[in-house]
Amino acid sequence: MPAFIIVEIEIHDPVLYEDYKKLSPIYLPKYQGKFIVRGGTCETLEGGWNPQRTVVLEFPNAQLARSWWASDDYAPAKALRNKAAKTKMILVEGLPG
């Protein structure tokens, strides 16, 4: 079953965040992940949710998504992100096509 990591990002250091954006996709293919949404315009349709930046990643399954997130490969990028921004991140399993 496909799994999606959905991230809400509030950037505090735009320069450092640009470095993160260059580093973060490098190891996604190793875990069969890909970006579905990476930034772009966000429109609130209901409620008070108004994220500054939204990212959605897709993986073939939740185990690969967790493995990528917890990997030594992604750790340097994650450290940059944690310095540059405040994030909220969830893992959601989807239904097959």
Write the layout of secondary structure elements.
Blueprint: E1 3-11, H1 14-23, E2 34-38, E3 53-59, H2 62-70, H3 75-84, E4 85-93
Antiparallel strand pairs: 1-3, 1-4, 2-3
Helix pairs in contact: 1-3
Strand order of the largest sheet: 2-3-1-4
- The N- to C-terminal Cα distance equals 9 Å
Helix content: 25-40%
Low-confidence stretches: none
Strand-residue proportion: 25-35%
Structural commentary:
The chain is 30% helix and 31% strand. The protein has helices at 14-23, 62-70, 75-84, and strands at 3-11, 34-38, 53-59, 85-93. A four-stranded antiparallel beta sheet has the order 2-3-1-4. The radius of gyration is 13 Å and the shape is globular. The model has no long low-confidence stretch (mean pLDDT 94).
Compact summary:
With 97 residues, the chain is an alpha+beta fold. Helices cover 30% and strands 31% of the residues. It has a domain of 54 residues.
List keywords for this structure.
single chain, globular, alpha+beta
